[in-house]
Amino acid sequence: KNQVEQSPQSLIILEGKNCTLQCNYTVSPFSNLRWYKQDTGRGPVSLTIMTFSENTKSNGRYTATLDADTKQSSLHITASQLSDSASYICVVDSNSGYALNFGKGTSLLVTP
Amino acid sequence: DADVTQTPRNRITKTGKRIMLECSQTKGHDRMYWYRQDPGLGLRLIYYSFDVKDINKGEISDGYSVSRQAQAKFSLSLESAIPNQTALYFCATSERTGTEAYNEQFFGPGTRLTVL
After folding, report:
1. Rounded distance, CA A41 to CA B10, Å?
2. Contact call for A93 and B103, based on CB within 8 A
3. Which of A28, A45, A49, B42 is the most exposed place for a label (fewest CB within 10 A)?
């Protein structure tokens, strides 16, 4: 069964600090891995998309890494801001173009 | 994403009632999707449509039906709502591309549905 596991479930950090969120997956076949940011009461918004051949991708202060051999990904947030408070969702596409496998998300709270 | 709109944003209804959730998009995308999100669970696919004449069941289609009235409109219906259909519902769209590698999905703001 395809699974996407995220850790930690929740995280609290001080404004300005860095943090790293983890994603492990057992999805086959594999097409791409995405990280989404979901603000409370809003729909998910894409941060990065990585295919099998890409091992890192950045979007501003967000940097995602992918190790396709170990089936692990991480999302690193640099110099966190209060607006980074959200749920971060790891999503793996099994080459279907439609059937995405969603993780449960990591809830991040950035405090002043 | 303002290009994908959902109505209503919030709805409270009673068990047994018929409910329709609507989704409209101005992105010009061919593909549209309906998901539900429950606390502590990942998003799950209910139905998806690759064009007006192509509608497919997703992971959890039981108790739901859909209608693709036009390229830009995709509605989700609960024929007889039950309490365990209380959830946050999202519509999403994506563009048909030559490769599925970057089939990015754009989500609407969601509809919070409560079935009493």
Report:
1. 11
2. yes
3. A28
